[in-house]
Specification:
15 strands; 460 residues; single chain; alpha/beta; Dihydrodipicolinate Reductase, domain 2; globular; nine-stranded mixed sheet; six-stranded parallel sheet; binds NADPH dihydro-nicotinamide-adenine-dinucleotide phosphate; Rossmann fold
Length: 460
């Protein structure tokens, strides 16, 4: 936590966009419900909606993606305001400065096309809006290492690092925070959590749907930029980092940066890229697109703890099911006592991040009877409902609230972002061959080869 004063206005660039509609309005209502939002919320976009139109859009968003709470919604409506205008027009920002009135510590949230980040940041600075302000930047933070550095340089000319919040909503998920919590709140894992006992680590982020009407966006992005450079490398940093000295945000982010810097840059021979067969027929996708919708890869961490332990990632669209799993497979027990020893992969710690949330430990027990045969069992350490249900905070609610109070723990720091780009940069510039795959399966067969000597992909 920090002792910084809370923001006294929230300015949302991109209020008419897809992200605001799907995630932000419901998060704002949830913040009001928890009495964590009591400052003006100013939307900025190009479309000239009336006040009533904006409130109706908020109502439709919350009704579609959450449950409307009449009292909280009424309060939210009273906080909502707007400034319409193009982001390339300085007059838009003059109007915004006027609309901010006496606000001294606004939080600017940029949910706009990434090509507009520099324009908006420069106009905010020129119009005198940035003194005392914080800024939230939506992903992607650049398209590669070079552009991420340029974006960071631009941001740092206007805002100090502790006022910049690079949002990766994955870090706002309870189940992702629990990776780090479970590791460092318990003593029994630490003796096992290293090259002596861990055989391999596998992360699967599978989605059964295709690009769901967002073909134009996806065709600019691809799987590595969409989920691997950010979400999945953040997960690896929590899994593989050394213990931070405390929960001070910089202590945690220092360890994340350190471990990411010890991951070897990815090379094409450790990467399988795929594209599902009907991808090029999707609206907005180029008919000759070479953008990957699937990747399977092997990372190596050059550290005392992890030397020789492969970290496998598999992520893709149009696959057999939707689930995100982290599987830490332990080395098998030596087969010296029992003739039928537990096979490779029998002992593991599995974190299921979606669709359900669970932590399970895999073990072997004796089959009842005369022989000494074994059978797999799974211990359930924790299981829960979906993210955002009941008393859990939804990721955007959590992160918006944190940014408004200046708590950067769950936001990506500049060096963490750049270290993650440095890992994938070589294969973005020089990708592996692109293989086609059928929807409803598990991607190209070559992906199975990658893990063949480690017992295959867990759960297929
Ligand atoms: P959209 O294209 O749906 O929305 C863009 C928003 O920016 C709209 O409000 C649009 O206003 C406004 N805008 C665009 N150009 C201008 C301009 N020149 N002047 C004024 N306003 C302008 O984008 P998304 O909401 O999908 O994404 C926004 C950001 O969030 C992107 O960085 C994206 O990568 C990120 N993101 C999105 C996710 C999602 O699920 N959608 C998930 C994670 C990150 P108008 O409608 O009036 O034109």
């Amino acid at each position: 936590m920090t002792d910084h004063p809370a923001s006294d206005a929230l300015v949302f660039f991109g209020i008419t966009g897809d992200l605001a509609y799907k995630k932000i309005f419901p998060a704002l209502q949830a913040l009001v419900q928890r009495e964590r939002l009591n400052v003006p919320v100013i939307g900025v976009a190009r479309s000239q909606l009336s006040d009533a139109d904006l409130i109706e859009r908020a109502r439709a968003s919350i009704t579609e993606h959450d449950t409307l709470d009449p009292a909280a919604f009424q309060k939210l409506s009273s906080l909502l305001g707007h400034v319409w205008g193009d982001y390339s027009d300085a007059a838009t920002f003059t109007r915004l400065r006027e609309r901010l009135g006496n606000a001294k510590r606004p939080l600017f949230y940029l949910a706009v096309p990434p090509s507009l980040f520099p324009t908006v940041v420069q106009h905010l600075a020129d119009s005198g809006c940035t003194a005392g302000a914080r800024i939230v930047i939506e992903k992607p933070f650049g398209r590669d290492l070079q552009s991420a550095r340029s974006l960071n340089t631009l941001l740092r000319t206007v805002f100090p690092e502790d006022s910049i919040f690079r949002i990766d909503h994955y870090l706002g998920k309870e189940a992702v925070q629990n990776l780090m919590y479970f590791r460092f709140a318990n003593t029994f894992l630490e003796p096992l959590w290293n090259r002596h006992y861990v055989d391999s680590v596998q992360i699967t982020m599978a989605e059964s749907m295709g690009v769901a009407g967002r073909g134009a966006f996806y065709d600019e992005t691809g799987v590595i930029r969409d989920v691997i450079q950010n979400h999945l490398l953040q997960i690896i940093s929590y899994l593989a980092m050394e213990a931070p000295s405390s929960t001070w945000p910089e202590a945690i982010r220092d360890e994340q940066a350190k471990v990411l810097r010890t991951i070897r840059p990815l090379s094409p021979e450790h990467l399988v890229l795929g594209q599902f067969r009907s991808y090029r027929q999707e609206p907005g996708v180029a008919p000759d697109s070479r953008v990957p919708t699937f990747a399977a890869l092997q990372l190596a961490i050059d550290s005392w703890r992890w030397e020789g332990v492969p970290f496998f990632i598999r992520a893709g669209k149009c696959l057999a099911e939707s689930r995100t799993d982290v599987m830490v497979e332990l080395k098998p027990a030596p087969p010296v006592v029992f003739q039928q020893a537990a096979p490779r992969g029998a002992n593991y710690v599995r974190f299921r991040l979606s669709p359900d949330v669970a932590i399970n430990i895999g073990a072997y027990t004796k089959v009842p009877g005369e022989g000494m045969a074994g059978q797999p069992v799974e211990l359930s350490v924790a299981s829960g409902t979906r993210q955002g249900v009941g008393t859990r905070l939804g990721p955007y609610e959590r992160l918006l609230g944190d940014a408004m109070t200046g708590d950067a723990t769950l936001f990506a720091r500049q060096d963490v972002v750049e270290a993650a780009w440095a890992i994938v940069d070589p294969v973005i510039k020089d990708p592996a061959a692109l293989l086609e795959y059928d929807c409803g399966g598990w991607g190209p067969a070559d992906a199975d080869q990658l893990v063949a000597s480690f017992g295959g992909w867990a759960g297929r």
